[in-house]
Amino acid sequence: MLNHQKSLLTALFFFFIFSFSFAQTLTQTVKGKIVDAETGAPLLGANVIVLNTNPARGAITDEDGYFRLEDIPVGRASFQFTYLGYEDFVISEILIGSAKEVELTINLTEALNQLDEVVLVAPTDNINPNNKLATVSARSFSVEETKRFPASVSDPGRMALSFAGVTNSDDTSNEIIIRGNAPNQLLWRIEGIEVPEPNHFSEEGYSPGNVSLISSNMLGKSDFFTGAFPATYGNALSGVFDINLRNGNNEKGEYAFQFGVLGTDLTAEGPFSKNYKGSYLINYRYSTIALLNQITDVTPGSTPTYQDVSMKLNLPLGEKTNLSIWGIGGISDEDEDPEVNGDFSSEEIFKSKTYMTGLTLTHFLKNNDKFEGRISYSGNASDFVFEEQNSVTGDTFGDSDILRNSALRVSLDYTKKINARTTLNTGAIGSFLNYNVLTTETENGQTRYIVREDGNGNMAQAYIQAKHRFNTDFSTTFGLHGTYFSVNKDIAIEPRLGFEWKVGTKHTLSAGLGIHSRRMPLNQYFIRIENNTPNTELDLMQATHYILGHDWRIIKNGHLKVEVYYQNLNKVAIVNDPSLTGSYLNGRFLDEALIDSGKGKNYGLELTFEKFFSRQYYFLATTSLYDTQYRAVDGNWYDSAYNYNYTFNLVGGKEFTVGKKQNNTLGLAAKTLFNGGKRATPINQEIFDQTGEIILDENLRNTIELDSYFRIDASIYYRLNKPKAAHRIALDIQNATNRLNVDNAFFNSNTGQLETSFQLELIPFLNYRLEF
């Protein structure tokens, strides 16, 4: 049966590969909006030119900044955008398919010399962040990138692994380790406001999850920061994932269906009416690993399932005002198959759910100053249940952990463009947080409560920042972020500073400095020890980032970027016991009394060599050399659990235009991940020799370095364009060389010897997508 399934999938794949289209030349509509880069105000009368066409094609924006170009041939096209008194902008190699209209949002920067009618600039890549106050360690990413990178399964978290400074040594997890910091130090934002980690199978603050809660079909152009981020962002220590959801098509109904070994994905979008520019976008996904487990045993002994729904409504309320309403929710569960061990049978169940919803009101004042107000409600829940029974005596045992978190957030943001040189931005955020935890043990129907807690806390944040351009080559950003946390009554003042200096047309020097703070999850503060809560007075953790960068446009459509950084961490929560060396920087829940006198330090060098997509190929090569350590209560320094020391990533791909009318595309891509090994702690050999008990040697915390992590992923895909529909079939292979990377280390209870378990074998992901 399994061989028959594989043969059928293979035949289906090659049917699409060799089914070239013999229809007429296909075209599509390209439309969008051109706005001021600093405020987002629409630009009336801006010009759009389709490059490399004869005769020339173009359009002009209307009073709302919108443009429309019809009958653009499918394939890839480049565009130039111009506006009197603004710098030109060129965007290259935009993918155009036959079934879905292309929608672009273009940000133009006002020129300092208003007397120049045309300001010529070099062709521009599309990785510059949406947030124009970022100077270092920032880039944007698009939905096409999440689909283009092999084995990313359209997950932005997995795609980010190819960026400099980002690591992950787990085949099943999409955790994001930035510059040696724990994954729980990352801030997630959706539509401009903080949200819990948007992943399935996750627990807030401690378990990163396995699959993104957000379908790539919902993504707009979004930002990713790895250090010294602008004053807009607070409650972040390592980085920021700032995700934007795209608007649905407001002129035409469009639909997409995708099916593969991971499940089903459905998307619908369109206008509410012909005479209204509002739109809707909705996506639903259902997945089960059952089909994939028939091909290769990804989750031995269990069959995880998950489903989620996402939506965004874009509702213009006039020429100057817009309202958007969005929501994301998902549930996941994993039931372990019953196990029998001697007289005992046992079963484990894990369930989780995450939800978030919000609205954003945007209003432009008479002078095009921008005001944005946001409100959101979000939360997550996780349930773990373990049950065991003695088949001889009938005795039953069990334990459970139930965790709930919720948050109501309100934010206000105001941007004023004083002139072409100076922009001011200020805002405030209020967060109202709640949680409850219930941990129980059960024996023969009698329940004992181990932890029964609930708590709440409020966080108030405010920020002010400005960007000043001294001339066309040199600019600076400076700002201040303040945070108040009610649980510990702590106040954090966080200055931020950044510089950018363009040296000629090919070199850009940059620098960033910032102090950043972050709270821990509420249950870490309110944990009860001997009927006390000793951790409620812990200060917010703090990190000072120092970054220097050099970006060299070494080739026409690519660049070489170097960054060096140092991070000094203070007020770190550590275990208040001289015999223990635990630190919150190791990314785990600490069920001990803590103090905030811990320290940490991270420093490193990062290189990026990237060729943007042009001439039908691209590549991205990154490497990082770094060290990350922390100081425990005994005053000694230890390697952190995420100190992998080095990482090297290489991803690249090539497309071929095929078919009689050159309407279709065959693509090949590959990716290599190479990291230093995970860390482990040896046992106390003296205690084991005397008692046979496995006790870790706290004085040698994280001194064992396991084997390096190495993985090659590959993909092949085919896009078939038809007049009324577009088809895409893709085969992604994770771990194409079938290398068994180390998963975890443990010690044999009989011999005391270190043993290891291994991660996943080769995994194929085959999926088919239809757009119409």
From TrEMBL:
Any Pfam family: CarbopepD_reg_2
Location in the cell: Cell outer membrane
Top-rank taxon, per record: Bacteria
Provide this UniProt record's keywords sorted from A to Z: Cell outer membrane, Membrane, Receptor, Signal
Which interval of the chain is the signal sequence?
Answer: 1-23
User: SUPFAM superfamilies given for it?
Assistant: Carboxypeptidase regulatory domain-like (SSF49464), Porins (SSF56935)
Q: Which GO terms describe its cellular component?
A: cell outer membrane
User: Where do the FHA domain residues begin and end?
Assistant: 527-590
Establish whether keyword Membrane is in the entry: yes
Provide the protein name. Answer: TonB-dependent receptor
Could you read off the lineage of the organism from its UniProt record? Bacteria, Pseudomonadati, Bacteroidota, Flavobacteriia, Flavobacteriales
